[in-house]
Structures are given as structure tokens and as C-alpha cells.
Amino acid sequence: MRDSSLPDLGVGLIGTGFMGRAHAMAFHNARSTFELPVNLRLAALADADAARAEQCARAWGFDRSHAHWQQLINDPSVDLVAITTPNHLHFPMAMAALEAGKAVYCEKPLAVSLDQARQMQSAAKAAGVVTRVGYNYQHNPIIGLARQMIANGELGQIVSFQGEFSEDFMANAQSPWSWRCEPAHAGGALADLGSHLLAMARYLLGDVEAVCADSQTVHRQRPATQGGQEQRQIAIDDQTYALLRFANGARGTFASSWLKHGYKNHLSFEISGTKGTLAFDQERLNELQLYRAGAPGRDGFQRILAGPSQPGYAAFCPAPGHQLGYNELKTLEVHALIQALCGQGNEGPDFAEAMHIERLAAAIRIAAREMRWVTVSDI
User: Fold this and answer.
1) Could you report the per-residue pLDDT of 26-66, keeping only the tens digit for each?
2) What is the chain's mean pLDDT, rounded?
3) What's residue 212's pLDDT?
4) pTM score, whole prediction
5) How is 69-83 classified by DSSP, letter by letter?
């Protein structure tokens, strides 16, 4: 029910794929889970397929549909533009929304090139509006705990980071071509998966100063369509590996692959310091593994379970061990976005932070191509 004492916030969603649905669910869940400082209204939904736009708008509870994204941006009922399209469309859509003075919530990666990312960050700064990018994994309450433990010195001086994000949805050479296979669309394992890991590394440990990298295209041809005979040439990375030098003195490794059989969402890290080691795996997203040095006879990792003592968790469940999931993380991301729009918080990566993530990814690409160490600040 609408509260007449609160201002309205109209959401416009562009895209009706997996991520569009995830955003729609997150907006719905945020309304029912949190006491928001606004009346959150699902104002409009746009998709290039007019019939699908109308169908999804009706099914997902949006007031109206549009057959073109520019119509949604021009819609006076839309205050916040959520972009869930393929990567190459992020730039024109976000720039148009910023020019219209509207807040932007864009899926990752921010853009298909560092130049585009810089233009988007500059336009957002000039527009003076709130922007956020969908690096939702860092909104996990247990990740917030990990960051707090690191900041509090519980691991001592950080000396190493080992990170990996692997899945297997492209492991089969017969998996067909998609837009993710196009270099011009920021395709490849580094952009699709690795960007999440780079965002996580920066969130937990800060700036990366220099990188050295290698990448590989394993399957150089894929069917143009599922089960089809026509083959398309592939030039993006199936897997990328890098060495990282952090500004805090730590050294690290980075790995992203969409070829590793058996892994479904293996965003993982181990962070070691002079007092202990912390480990996490997104496939077990409600727990951390902690090893504390200096306890003779007590070797081994301690399992730390997520629970209501961590901010965000209690909104969904009053007891530990009952587990949050992917859609809850997206809901927490949307909640942080709404708080920022209302001047009540600043959590989550904005276009400026996403631009730094893109710069780090660009440095890794250059390092792999030129087979050398690259200083990130030189990019």
C-alpha cells in the first residue's frame, strides 16, 4: 500500500533475460523485506521484443511496457533506470539516462572498453546522480564480515590473495556462440566472470598496482546455433590467469575460466596474513573458513556461519544456518541502492569504482597480450 507521506521512486527496467528477472525480483523483495524511505514503484519495463516486454511487465508487476529503451528513459514516471542488457548496450543506455538526469543501476561489466567506462564515470559525475553497478556478491553479509576482519587486523598484515572464479557453462566445445563470445561486446571469461573477482579483490584488499597475465582461447570455433553445422570463429579468452601486486604489499593470483567441469559458481578466495588465513567459496556462500595461527594442538580451519548478527542477514531470517541465496544478495544490493538514492548510505560500487575495475581488467588484457608486467596506473 502506498504511503502518502513518502516520496515516490519509479523504477524503469531494461531487459527481460535472467538478469532482468533477478532485478525485478530484487525490487519486489526489497519492498516486502525492508521499511523503505520511499514508495518504490515498478513504473516501466522495456525490451526490444514488444510482446515479451508487455508479457513480462504484466507478470512482474510493472505499470507499463515499452518496445524501445529510449522510450523508457523518456518516461516521466521513471526516476531510476536499471540496465540488464548485453554489455555493448550499457554505454548508450547509461549515457542517455544520465543525460536525462536519471539515476542508473547497471549490470557488470560497466562497459566494453576502458574509454567507454571513463566517459560513463565522467558523465555520472557531471550529472550528479546516484549510480551503482551489479557486483552483487560483495553485498553478502559474510563478505562484509570478512572485510571487517581484515580491516580490524585479525589476519595481521596481509601477505597473499588467491582468487578464482570458474564455471563450466562453456566447457563443452559444442556450446553455441553467443554475444559473450564477441570481443566487441566485452565477451570472454575475464569480463563475464573475472570482473566479479577483481571487484571482490579491490573491495577486500584495495588497489592493485601491477599485473602480469596470460590468457587462452581453447575452443576456437563454436556452432553458430545450438546443434547447427555452421561454425563461428572465437577470439575471446576461455581462461585468464594473472599475478597481482597490491598497493598494501600483498601478492596475489587471479584465475577466471568458464571451462572447468564441475564448477557452477566458484567465486572463491583465500587471503593470508601474518596471523591467519581466511577462505570463501560462493558455492557455500553462507560460511567463511578461518585459520588462526599460534594455537598449538588446534590446527585446522574454523567454520564461521552467517547469521543475524551480520548486517542484512536478519532482514531475511532470525536464526543462523538457515542460508541466504543469490536473490537475497540481489535484494541487499537493491536496498543499498535505494538508501543511497535517499542519502542514507553509500554502499556498493558506483561508476567511479566500476571504472577502476575496468582499468584493472584492461591492464590484465595488455599484460597477457604483450607478455609483460603492467603498472595499472599507466593505463
Assistant:
1) 999 999 999 999 999 999 999 999 999 999 999 999 999 99
2) 96
3) 98
4) 0.96
5) HHHHHH-TT-SEEEE
- Angle subtended at Cα 284 by Cα 33 and Cα 213, rounded to the nearest 5 degrees: 115
For 231-275, list the strands marked E by DSSP. 231-233, 239-246, 251-257, 266-273
The most distant pair of C-alpha atoms in the chain lies apart, rounded to whole Å, by: 66
Residue 3 has pLDDT above 90, yes or no: no
Half-sphere exposure for 253 (CA within 13 Å, toward CB): 8
Kindly tell me the sign of the dihedral angle through the C-alpha atoms of 361, 365, 371, 377. Answer: negative
CA dihedral sign, ordered 185, 188, 191, 196:
positive
Question: 276 by DSSP, 3-state: which?
Answer: strand
Cα(334)–Cα(26) distance, integer angstroms: 6
What structural domains does the chain harbor? 8-136 (3.40.50.720), 138-323+350-375 (3.30.360.10)
Sheet holding 39-46, edge to edge: 64-66, 39-46, 8-14, 80-83, 103-106, 131-133
